Amino acid sequence: MTKHELYPIAFEIAGDFGMFADPADGLPVAKSYPLPPKTACYGMINSIIGGDDEKTGLQIEPIAVATCNFPTYEVWATNSKTHLRKGSSIKFDSPLQMCLGILSKPRFQILALVRSKIGGRAHSFQSQFFRRIAKGQSRYPVSLGHKEFMAIELTIPTTPVEINYSHVIPSFLDALIYRTDVPPEKRGKFKNNVPIVQGMLKYSDVDVCLKDDLLTFSNPEFQQQLEYIYGRIKTGVRVQ
């Protein structure tokens, strides 16, 4: 690949609560994944920048996520009019009461790569993305899973990753199929036994690492790009 085909982006996101439900979990009881799946990170990035792949002419690929604290859970009760209700409940428009295991005070660092497709400008996307991160702004509200759980902080990575947290997720959502001919309960594609090592979870084969306890790319060029941008943001200089 040539030098300008891929552009790295990175950010830190935090909130009071988060819920990244395993679609395979049965309702009315479900528990959040400890870290967001790839699809959730993709949604966060699109909310920040205000567009998707088709609108921007870009390919956005989340690469890895890391947690900045040990995942802790709280019980959250709510009513839902999910399609998974019994037929009689749907007929009479009765909600389903759910008790969910949600994340308390989640804080993550997320890495992604942006690639230009036809008509896309990856460098412009990268610059606009970091200008919004520098101001803690987003085009649309950014949620941590459920739309009720909004992000309260968007920054460049600054909080040390929790390297003492390791875990194996038995079944982890990898992708969603957006087709009307596929039943909702069968739209998820999963990976088995996905490891979280030193607080980090990888979505792809792109190498990542920790530098100064922050999540970053192993590729020196991507590292240098991010460090240059972080330096401009910290000194109040506009990202070009």
Care to describe what's here?
The protein is built from five helices and 13 strands. The model has no long low-confidence stretch (mean pLDDT 86). It starts with 5 loop residues before the first strand and ends in a 6-residue tail after the last helix. The chain has 240 residues and is an alpha+beta fold. The strands form four sheets. Strands 8-1-7-4-11 form a five-stranded antiparallel sheet, with helices on both faces. The radius of gyration is 19 Å and the shape is globular. The protein has one domain (6-234): Alpha-Beta Plaits (2-Layer Sandwich).
Distance between the first and last residues' Cα = 23 Å
Total of DSSP H or I helical runs spanning 4+ residues: 5
- Identify the CATH class: Alpha Beta
One letter per element, helices H and strands E, the order comes to: EEEHHEEHEEHEEEEEEH
- How many domains is the backbone divided into? 1
What general form does the structure show? globular
In spatial order, strands of the major sheet run 8-1-7-4-11
